[in-house]
Amino acid sequence: MFLFDWFEAFLNWLGFLKKEGSLIIIGLGNAGKTTLLQVLSKDVLKAHMPTQRPHMDHFVASNVTFKAWDLGGQQGLRALWRNYTAGSSDSSKLIVIFMVDTTDPQQLGEAKAELHDALEYTNGAPMLIVGSKIDRPGLNREQLIQALDLNSHMLGLNENSPRIMDVLMVSSVSRKGVPELMNWLSKCHSISNK
Ligand SMILES: Nc1nc2c(ncn2[C@@H]2O[C@H](COP(=O)(O)OP(=O)(O)OP(=O)(O)O)[C@@H](O)[C@H]2O)c(=O)[nH]1
Ligand SMILES: [Mg+2]
């Protein structure tokens, strides 16, 4: 067993083993989840109807192929967020993206409540909060952290912290923050799969 683990780690180090990760993307309706997944998987920007049922797509970030579920944020679909997390065989290997529209102050209270709920039922899975639509006037990262009532000392890609949690700011339209998001996901995957 030890030899096998050692050999697997060696192959991994050489880059011979295919790395796979799983991801769910949640957040209130209109936050920009489907638009972001299209940009990550196909690098295209399209208009979408509000998501009616879960949709899966793949994308590659560095050397990791992610299988990503966009679960839809309309009120009636939110019960699924919990089910998909519970259905994951190993929550430490699942990454959760929670998207928040930084241009819509009216939704922040509801987003905060849903996020804090999600932090409970996702069983310690790494949580990346993505502030969306930064090509338009809206909250900056510090204001978003405050509005969502997050402890800034807990944020970052720190493998020794009890839970990996971070906040990144992204625009699917201008692609600002998208390379940093991909980089974050691949690093988080390697920390969680050590
Ligand atoms: N300006 C700007 N608009 C964006 C961006 N991302 C998404 N949008 C717009 O925001 C609206 C909602 O985007 P969607 O991706 O459909 O949102 P969603 O989170 O999937 O919404 P549900 O499916 O209802 O949960 C659309 O009009 C998008 O064009 C962005 O980065 N910048
Ligand atoms: Mg959608």
Automatic annotation (TrEMBL):
SUPFAM superfamilies for the chain: P-loop containing nucleoside triphosphate hydrolases
Pfam families, alphabetized: Arf
Stored Gene3D superfamilies: P-loop containing nucleotide triphosphate hydrolases (3.40.50.300)
UniProt keyword annotation of Protein transport present: yes
Any GO molecular function: GTPase activity
Stated family: Belongs to the small GTPase superfamily. SAR1 family.
UniProt-recorded name of the protein: ARF/SAR superfamily protein
Taxonomic source organism: Heterostelium pallidum (strain ATCC 26659 / Pp 5 / PN500)
Taxonomic classification: Eukaryota, Amoebozoa, Evosea, Eumycetozoa, Dictyostelia
The gene coding this protein: sarB
